[in-house]
Specification:
The chain has 275 residues and is an alpha+beta fold. It is built from 10 helices and 10 strands. 44% of the residues lie in helices and 22% in strands.
C-alpha cells in the first residue's frame, strides 16, 4: 500500500464571513497513524473512502469505516487513529464562518452516517483532486458539498432547508447581470428544480422565477433612476437581451414602460430638490 499526504491552503484578498473553506486535502494513513488529542479552531469534515479507524471526542469513542464521515467542531478535544491492519484513506475540508454553527447545529453526533455518502464522497474527491485552485472556484465546490450534506437520502426531509433558499437568493444577487434560469440556480445549489420551488414558496410566498424576475426588474429600475444608462443598457445590465421582453416585464411590474417610469421619478426628484 502506498502512503501519501496532500493538502492545499486557500488564500483570498476578500474578507469572507458567512462560510468559507480554509484547507482541504487527502491522506492514505500509515497503520496506527494518529492525530491529537487536541482542540481545533475551525470545523473539519473527514470522509473515509477505505479502511477504518477510531475517533474520540471528549469521553466518547466511535469506530468509523468506509462511506462514513466525522465532524470535528471548534473547541472540542478530539483524537483519531487509523486501524493497525486496515488504515483509512480519507479526504477532508476545513472551514469556518458565522453561518457554520447554525448550519451544523442539527448534527448532534460527530459521526455522520445518514446521508447519500456516494454523492458527498464524489464531490469531495473531485474537490481535492483538482489540486490547488482559486478561492472563487473552491467556494463554488464547497457550497456543493454543503448542499449534499444537508440533503437526506431516500427522499427524506433535508436539514436547514431555509439555507437552500438563502443560497439561491445569494446566487441570484451575484448573477443579476446574467441570463440565468431557475435550473441554473437549482444546479448550483445541488437540488432539483421542483424541490427548490417548493422551498421558495414556503419561505417567500413566491416561486423562484417570480423572485428572480422581480430582483432583475428592481435592479434595472435603480439603474434607470440613479444613472444615465439607456433603457437598452439597463435591460442588458440585468441579463435581458430582448428589449421587447424586458419592456413587457417591466410594464407588468410597474404599470409603466421603462421610459415612463424613469421620467416620472426624475420629475419627482426635481420637485424634492427645489423645495
Amino acid at each position: 500500500m502506498d502512503f501519501f499526504f496532500r493538502n492545499y491552503y486557500l488564500a483570498t484578498n476578500y474578507v469572507p464571513t458567512d462560510m468559507y473553506p480554509i484547507l482541504y486535502g487527502e491522506e492514505q494513513c500509515k497503520p496506527g497513524y494518529s492525530f491529537g488529542p487536541c482542540v481545533r479552531s475551525n470545523y473539519i469534515i473527514h470522509y473515509v473512502y477505505s479502511g477504518c479507524g477510531i475517533l474520540r471526542v471528549g469521553k466518547d469513542e466511535y469506530k468509523i469505516g468506509k462511506g462514513e464521515m466525522f465532524l470535528i467542531k471548534p473547541n472540542s478535544l478530539a483524537y483519531y487513529r487509523a486501524d493497525l491492519e486496515n488504515p483509512w484513506l480519507y479526504r477532508w475540508i476545513e472551514f469556518n464562518g458565522s453561518m457554520s454553527e447554525r448550519i451544523l447545529a442539527p448534527f448532534k453526533s460527530p459521526v455522520l452516517r445518514d446521508f447519500d455518502s456516494k454523492q458527498i464522497g464524489q464531490r469531495l474527491k473531485d474537490f481535492v483532486g483538482s489540486g490547488q485552485i482559486s478561492f472563487e472556484n473552491a467556494m463554488e465546490r464547497f457550497w456543493g458539498i454543503l448542499a449534499a450534506l444537508n440533503e437526506r437520502p431516500s427522499g427524506g426531509a433535508p436539514i436547514n432547508t431555509h439555507e437552500y433558499v438563502l443560497m439561491a437568493e445569494q446566487y441570484i444577487k451575484n448573477n443579476i447581470n446574467k441570463k440565468i434560469t431557475v435550473n441554473d440556480i437549482a444546479a448550483h445549489i445541488g437540488i432539483n428544480r421542483s424541490y427548490l420551488s417548493r422551498l421558495f414558496k414556503e419561505r417567500n410566498g413566491v416561486s423562484p422565477q417570480q423572485y428572480l424576475t422581480t430582483a432583475k426588474i428592481n435592479a434595472a429600475a435603480q439603474y434607470l433612476k440613479n444613472t444615465d444608462i439607456s433603457v437598452t443598457g439597463a435591460a442588458q445590465s440585468v441579463g435581458y437581451t430582448d428589449y421587447r421582453v424586458f419592456n413587457k416585464v417591466f410594464r407588468r411590474h410597474f404599470n409603466a414602460s421603462p421610459s415612463e417610469w424613469r421620467n416620472k421619478h426624475i420629475w419627482q426628484q426635481s420637485i424634492i430638490e427645489t423645495k
